[in-house]
Amino acid sequence: INCTTNQYTYNAFNSKRVAPLWVFLHEKAYQTRDTAIESSVMTKVKGFGVYNNRVMDVADYVTPAQGASVFCIITKFITTDNQVQGSCPEVRSSTFLLPACISMTGRCVNYNETFKTCEIRGWCPAEIDSVHYQPMLEAENFTIFIKNSIRFPLFNFTKGNLLPNITKEYIETCLFDPRTDIYCPIFRLGDVVRFAGQDFKTLADRGGVIGIKIGWVCDLDKSDDQCNPAYSFTRLDSVSAKTKVSPGYNFRYAKYFKKADGTEHRILLKAHAIRIDVLVYGNAGKFNMIPTLINIVAAFTSVGVGTVLCDIILLNFLKGAEQYKAKKFEEVATQGWVVGWQKSFLVQSTKTEAKSLMHSYIFSWLCMLSTAKHFKALLS
Ligand SMILES: *[C@@H]1O[C@H](CO)[C@@H](O)[C@H](O)[C@H]1NC(C)=O
């Protein structure tokens, strides 16, 4: 008995007993959590750039135009003007052959004075994309305005990133800064790229995908103005930053025209773009009785107090306590255990570790389930 008492005293004060409590508080195990955040994002880009001696505005370089959470800011165009349906020599780039077999006519024609290539049928003249252009570097000063509205459906809590204390005057002049202006919803493209750890010139030249993440991690036990967005920035296509095979991000699109005589022609554009993906994530927690109870029991189970705690609740406070008491004491009696909880605890510790553990686990699981059920019944 002496030995077990010492053992118990030792166990009572070792870190195993404190750890679950710390985890319980730190992980906010007394809250229910809503992780199904609902969100809408609207964006607007502003700024002027110069490309090939042409002034470019938003309608020229942003696609798609709807202001969605994913959009491209085109920093480099390779245009092929006046393409019409016809036959012309194919263009062979030094790195790979255009797989144009289906549309080949089978003839060999002059590409230039020294070089002959196959003739193709399709949109002519064919695109030459091996020429090098400077990207539109003014894009560094373009600004992105982000309007984000979120809702946690479980708590019916809504909020937006245009916080109540943001004034009209402030929003007209502010720029996001991670130290001084952490809630300004206007971002300079050059800053966004820099925060994501990228070099602007390289990114503008090759194209790439940058993520602007908006995090809403809220403790709704605190006041509403403590639930605020946190912005972070990352390069999402880190694979294409490293690979030599297909570096960057580009895509092609065309603008179609019809001449007076009815013939169709088009301008083909190959665009290198910085794509911005605005990603919203978050969760919110609020105090709730059921997880509190379940987690208290679970936390103490590992040190064997769960059994005692549960029994106290079941024996004294809940409906059907009488039946439970009868059953419990009968069980104790038939197994030859001492009646009385402190003593039962001591005797248990003299048995093998495995048996005591098993008993403790099975019993506290049953207890947890029945407590939760009782509480649900009481609350509903
Ligand atoms: C961006 O704006 C700053 C200040 O207005 C200016 O000094 C800089 O030259 C601009 N950058 C580019 C690439 O045009």
UniProtKB/TrEMBL annotation:
GO terms for cellular component: plasma membrane; postsynapse. Keywords: ATP-binding, Cell membrane, Disulfide bond, Glycoprotein, Ion channel, Ion transport, Ligand-gated ion channel, Membrane, Nucleotide-binding, Receptor, Transmembrane, Transmembrane helix, Transport. GO terms for molecular function: ATP binding; extracellularly ATP-gated monoatomic cation channel activity; purinergic nucleotide receptor activity. Disulfide bonds join 88-124, 101-118, 174-184, 218-227. Belongs to the P2X receptor family. NCBIfam families: P2X (TIGR00863). This is P2X purinoceptor. It comes from Erpetoichthys calabaricus (Rope fish).
